[in-house]
């Protein structure tokens, strides 16, 4: 167990696994233990493991308020594998349940021809006043929605 006293108080953890973070069978109890002790947690994920997201969304709201996801937007891979809808459905599930999240696209030269397609793909989320949306010539797309628990005022 992670003991607040040993850590000097409440901490912010960033969880990133080798490969997909949410794959291990024991990941949910680990996440729960961290949150139950009052810590905050960011989880890096590809956003495709719907079963894990549904299980995490069953956590009490006070725990979900301290849970955030860094969702890796692997645009070309999502297109290639036909998993774009799964990704966005899980984003909506996280949003609906009051968790904070960021959607992150790593800029690479190979994405330059797809800039307009990427903008169209993320545009529906731009309409939400809680999103911070950025796009730069290098195709860096980051948008974030933060719960009040993380100190972000949505007004």
Written overview of the protein:
This protein starts with a helix and ends in a 10-residue tail after the last strand. It has helices spanning about 5, 25-35, 50-55, 60-65, 75-80, 85-95, 115-125; strands spanning about 10-15, 40-45, 65-70, 100-105, 130-135, 140-145. With about 160 residues, the protein is an alpha/beta fold. It has a 6-stranded mixed beta sheet, covered by helices on one side.
Radius of gyration over C-alpha positions, nearest whole angstrom: 16 Å
Instruction: Give the number of DSSP strands.
Output: 6
Strand content: 15-25%
Structural class: alpha/beta
Q: What global shape is seen?
A: elongated
What share of the residues lie within helices?
Answer: 25-40%
Number of helices: 7
Low-confidence stretches: 132-155
Summarize the helix and strand pattern as letters: HEHEHHEHHEHEE
Strand order of the largest sheet: 1-2-3-4-6-5
**Global mean pLDDT:** 81
N→C terminal distance: 37 Å
Sheet with most strands: 6 strands, mixed
Short description:
It contains 7 helices and 6 strands. It has 155 residues and is an alpha/beta fold. It starts with a helix and ends in a 10-residue tail after the last strand.
């Amino acid at each position: 167990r992670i003991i607040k006293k040993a850590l000097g108080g409440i901490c912010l953890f960033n969880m990133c696994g080798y490969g997909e973070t949410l794959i291990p069978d024991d990941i949910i109890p680990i996440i729960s233990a961290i949150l139950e002790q009052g810590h905050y947690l960011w989880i890096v994920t590809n956003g495709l493991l719907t079963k894990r997201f549904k299980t995490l969304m069953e956590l009490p709201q006070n725990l979900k308020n301290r849970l955030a996801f860094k969702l890796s937007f692997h645009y070309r891979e999502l297109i290639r594998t036909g998993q774009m809808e799964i990704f966005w459905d899980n984003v909506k599930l996280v949003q609906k349940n009051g968790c904070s999240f960021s959607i992150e696209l790593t800029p690479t030269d190979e994405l330059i021809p797809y800039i307009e397609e990427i903008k169209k793909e993320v545009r529906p989320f731009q309409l939400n006043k809680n999103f911070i949306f950025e796009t730069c010539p290098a195709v860096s797309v980051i948008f974030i929605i933060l719960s009040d628990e993380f100190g972000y005022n949505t007004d």
